[in-house]
Amino acid sequence: MPSAEASHEPWKACYSQVAPRLLLFARQWLSAADAEDVVQTAFVRFWQKYPTAQAEHYPLLYAAVRNAAIDLIRSNDRRTLREESFHSTHAEPAYFETSLDRREEADRIQAALQHLSAEQRETLVLRIWGELTFAQIAETLGESINTVAARHRYALQALRRILKPNEHERVGV
């Protein structure tokens, strides 16, 4: 019979591989602390349902994190309504951490991401930082692959226009 430690090895590998990406995904809606809580909660719930931690189930973790984040946001909104005397503040989501020398560029990109629709931003984060395929994103979001691909394409076009407005103009077509 395998030891308890050996049975947790697949989950340790899964956590070390996927947790940083899930944290980035959750941080588009939540503060850093809440995002960490949501990711940990999603992992525990997921581990209970899929104790073998197989790679084909990893995209479902994104759906679990997304649902947990939405649940937490709704809970916070309800609490805020009950406690009208308190003003709820949500930190700007941070999509990635950088060294100080790249912070300015990171701030520009993060500001540009805020100009995208929530759907485009979510798709872009899942594709680039989550490294999911369009099929996995479609499954996670409950959308068609064509919709996901279009959102990704439009998000990239919008980012190009925002970040490099003069570079992508066509002349004399």
Descriptive report:
By secondary structure, the chain is an all-alpha fold. Helices cover 66% and strands 0% of the residues.
Number of domain modules: 2
Largest sheet: none
Q: What is the averaged pLDDT score?
A: 80
Taken from the alpha-carbon principal axes, the silhouette is: globular
Which structural class do the helices and strands define? mainly alpha
SSE order: HHHHHHHH
Helix content range of the residues, please? 55-70%
- Range of strand content: under 5%
Radius of gyration: 19 Å
Number of strands: 0
Please give the alpha-carbon distance between the first and last residues: 70 Å
Number of helical elements: 8
Q: What are the low-pLDDT stretches, counting only 5+ consecutive residues below 50? A: 85-91
Q: Which helices and strands, and how do they pair?
A:
Blueprint: H1 4-7, H2 9-26, H3 32-49, H4 58-82, H5 103-113, H6 118-129, H7 134-141, H8 145-163
List keywords for this structure.
single chain; 173 residues; mainly alpha; Arc Repressor Mutant, subunit A; 8 helices; globular
